[in-house]
Write a structure and sequence with these properties.
The chain is α/β, with parallel strands linked by helices. The protein is 39% helix and 21% strand. It binds glutamine.
Length: 270
C-alpha cells in the first residue's frame, strides 16, 4: 500500500484531515509530506500501525490521543488520557489574557492546567511572567511539566493540588482557568467519553467549580488583579452574576472565534 492508497482508503471512513494526521504520525513525517510523496510505500509495520490507529479513530477515539499530540497556540503539546485535549476555544482565553496583561514582571496562575495549554502559551509569549500551573491529578501534572521541559518554557512552576489551595500564600496578578463546566446530564458528554471526565463535568449544572474559583480567587488576587474563567456559551449570565455578587468589577465577556461567549473576565478591588 502506498501513501495515496492509504489516504484514499481511510478518507472513505474518517475525516480527511484525521487520515492525514494519522498517516503522518505512522510515517513520522509532517502532514505536507503525505502529499509531496504519494508514491511512498508503507512498510508492513507502518501499514499495520496505520490500520490499527484508523480503526480506533473509526471507533471514536480522538486523533490527539492516537498521535499523542495536539497543536495549541502554535505549540505542539503532548496529550494523553489524563489530559483534556486543548481546544481552539481556549486560545480566545489566552488572547484576552495577552490583551489585558502588562509585559512586565507578573505572577500568573493557571488552575487545572491539564496539558499545560494556557500556562505554556502565556509563558511562550512573555518570558518576564512568573507562572504557576496547578492540577489536582499528578499524572496530568507530569504531562504538563514534560511539555514545559520539551518546549524550554522554564518559568512555569507546577504545583499539585485542588484549585487555589495548592498555592496557599501566593498573591497573583492574574488567575486564569479552564475548569470543568459541563453539566452531568449534558448530551454532548457522550462524544467526549475518551477524555478525563473530571476535567469536563462539574456539579450544579456545570457551575460548581466556576463558583468555587470566583470565591477562592478573592483571597489570592492582588489589588486590581484579574480573574479570567473559561465557561460554556450559555453560562456567562450566571458566572457574571456570581462575580458581581462576590465584589468583582470591570466584568467583561470573552468571545470565541465562532462568536459564542466563552469566558468571563473581572478585576478584584478590595
Ligand atoms: N470546551 C470543552 C468542550 O465543550 C469543555 C472543556 C471544559 O469543560 N473545561 O468540549
Amino acid at each position: 500500500m502506498n501513501v495515496r492508497q492509504a489516504l484514499v482508503y481511510a478518507s472513505q471512513w474518517v475525516d480527511k484531515l484525521d487520515a492525514e494526521l494519522l498517516l503522518g504520525h505512522c510515517l513520522r513525517v509532517a502532514r505536507p509530506h503525505v502529499y509531496a510523496w504519494p508514491e511512498q510505500l508503507l512498510t508492513p509495520l507502518q501499514q499495520q500501525q496505520f490500520i490499527d490507529l484508523f480503526e480506533q479513530r473509526q471507533a471514536g477515539k480522538p486523533v490527539a490521543y492516537l498521535t499523542g499530540c495536539k497543536e495549541f497556540w502554535s505549540l505542539s503539546l503532548q496529550v494523553d488520557e489524563h489530559t483534556l485535549i486543548p481546544r481552539p476555544d481556549t486560545e480566545s482565553i489566552v488572547e484576552l489574557a495577552l490583551r489585558k496583561l502588562p509585559r512586565t514582571v507578573q505572577t500568573i496562575v493557571d488552575l487545572g492546567t491539564g496539558s499545560g495549554a494556557i500556562a505554556l502559551a502565556l509563558a511562550f509569549e512573555c518570558r518576564l511572567w512568573s507562572i504557576f500551573a496547578t492540577d489536582l491529578h499528578l499524572a496530568t501534572l507530569q504531562r504538563a511539566k514534560a511539555n514545559a521541559q520539551r518546549l524550554g518554557l522554564n518559568q512555569v512552576q507546577f504545583v499539585a493540588g485542588d484549585w487555589l489551595t495548592a498555592l496557599n500564600y501566593l498573591q497573583a496578578d492574574a488567575i486564569i482557568a479552564n475548569p470543568p463546566y459541563i453539566a452531568a446530564d449534558d448530551v454532548h458528554l457522550a462524544a467526549l467519553c475518551y477524555e478525563p471526565q473530571a476535567a469536563l463535568v462539574a456539579a450544579d449544572q456545570g457551575l460548581a467549580d466556576l463558583f468555587t474559583l470566583i470565591e477562592q480567587a478573592k483571597m489570592q488576587l492582588k489589588q486590581g488583579g484579574f480573574l479570567l474563567l473559561e465557561h460554556g456559551f450559555d453560562q456567562s449570565a450566571s458566572v457574571q452574576a456570581k462575580m458581581r455578587q462576590a465584589g468583582y468589577q470591570s466584568i467583561e465577556t470573552c468571545y470565541d472565534l465562532t462568536g459564542h461567549a466563552r469566558g468571563s473576565f473581572a478585576r478584584y478591588m478590595r
